[in-house]
């Protein structure tokens, strides 16, 4: 079986030597016990601005496992991963996607391959505990998973993009035409036989996170809006709710008028004006999110361009 480890890299020159070393060790182990017939590490350089690509090229010469694709510009983690998965769907029997920074436990790969050899199509790497994450990240992440589940997204708790996928899973995945990628949701919606492998997530080996808070928020919003249309329905509920309140208020106003105790009414007027104004803006914003998504989808732009590959991939 041909096995590929896909690793998206953006400005990762600080971690690549160690990543290459550790992933090679994992592949050595798998080959030794005949769990795979052929192994490859496919680095996808997501338009890095540091020496990532020259490192990848050098490792490709020195190390027979290493290959690389260089994307023409930075398209973001999900699309870079997609580029690697698309390549793997055409050339491999199974592939594991993993981040370059060694936060995910490379030793879990071996257990994933064993599940594959027992007939599983998807093996999710699931974090056992989030010891190394900050309090803030831990709680925002949990809230995000809950929200996604609540909105009907079928996603696996504490699973990021560390997973094994079989060839047919990859082929099913790359047949999705959408441009707004939320891979972990897309994969779990495929429904092929799957298993979980638990691991402890570590600190980033070197370098710093490429996901600052701003990117995290926009990733969460993308996740929700590309997976669920329920926020649209909630707007309707919200609208109905406000209408009901308005009717009650009118009734109350008429009654107090009949009693002759009508108030000057400034307070209630202003409060409801602001409140409803806010609600309408919020609703517009949510609709705008979806309209933006639709716009992006109808354009059907290519997800990435490959600028260069390592020698053997040519
Ligand atoms: N990454 C990428 N393109 C980007 C940002 C990140 O390919 O625009 C890669 C990065 O090199 C790493 C993975 O995506 O392999 C996850 O990024 P990071 O570790 O910085 O995110 P975090 O673990 O902090 O959420
Ligand atoms: Mg990381």
What labels describe this entry?
52% helix, 314 residues, binds magnesium ion, 16% strand, 8 strands, 8-stranded mixed sheet, binds uridine-5'-diphosphate, alpha/beta, 10 helices
The oligomeric state is: single chain
Q: Give the DSSP E fraction (strand runs of 2 or more residues).
A: 15-25%
- Widest β-sheet, arrangement of strands: 7-5-6-4-1-2-3-8
Low-confidence stretches: none
The total count of strands amounts to 8
Largest sheet: 8 strands, mixed
**Class inferred from helices and paired strands:** alpha/beta
Shape: elongated
Question: How many helices in DSSP terms?
Answer: 10
Helix content: 40-55%
Protein name: Glycosyltransferase family 2 protein
Membrane topology: Multi-pass membrane protein
Pfam family, one: Glycos_transf_2
Keywords: Glycosyltransferase, Membrane, Transferase, Transmembrane, Transmembrane helix
């Amino acid at each position: 079986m041909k096995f590929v480890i896909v690793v998206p890299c953006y400005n990762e020159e600080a971690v690549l030597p160690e990543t290459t070393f550790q992933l090679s060790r994992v592949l050595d182990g798998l080959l030794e016990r005949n769990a795979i017939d052929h192994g490859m590490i496919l680095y996808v350089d997501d338009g890095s601005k540091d020496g990532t690509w020259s490192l990848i090229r050098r490792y490709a010469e020195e190390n027979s496992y290493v290959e690389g694709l260089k994307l023409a510009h930075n398209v973001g983690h999900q699309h870079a991963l997609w580029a690697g998965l698309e390549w793997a769907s055409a050339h491999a029997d199974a592939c594991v996607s993993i981040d370059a920074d060694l936060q995910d436990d490379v030793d879990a790969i071996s257990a994933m391959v064993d599940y594959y050899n027992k007939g599983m199509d998807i093996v999710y790497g699931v974090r056992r505990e989030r010891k190394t994450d900050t309090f803030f990240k831990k709680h925002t992440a949990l809230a995000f998973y809950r929200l996604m589940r609540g909105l009907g997204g079928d996603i696996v708790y504490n699973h990021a993009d560390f997973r094994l996928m079989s060839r047919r899973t990859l082929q099913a995945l790359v047949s999705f035409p959408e441009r707004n990628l939320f891979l972990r949701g897309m994969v779990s919606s495929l429904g092929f036989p799957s298993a979980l492998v638990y691991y402890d997530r570590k600190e980033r080996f070197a370098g710093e996170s490429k996901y600052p808070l701003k990117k995290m928020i926009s990733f969460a919003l993308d996740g929700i809006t590309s997976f669920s249309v329920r926020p649209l329905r909630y707007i309707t509920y919200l609208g109905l709710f406000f209408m009901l309140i308005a009717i009650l208020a009118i009734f109350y106003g008429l009654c107090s008028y009949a009693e002759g105790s009508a108030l000057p009414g400034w307070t209630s007027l202003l409060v409801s004006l602001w409140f409803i104004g806010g609600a309408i803006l919020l609703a517009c914003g949510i609709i705008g999110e979806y309209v933006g998504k639709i716009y992006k989808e109808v354009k059907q732009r290519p997800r990435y361009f490959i600028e260069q590959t390592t020698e053997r991939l040519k």
